[in-house]
Amino acid sequence: YLSRISGPLIDRIDVFCEVLRPKKLAMDTDGKLSAKESIGNSNSDIIHNYDNQSSPMSSTSSKQLYSQVIIARNRQLSRFGETSKLNSSMASKEFERYCRLDKDSKELFESIIDNKNMSLRSATRLLSVSRTIADMDDSDAIELSHLTEAFSYRYPEILLQ
Question: Nearest 5°: CA angle at 47, between 46 and 53?
Answer without folding.
Answer: 110
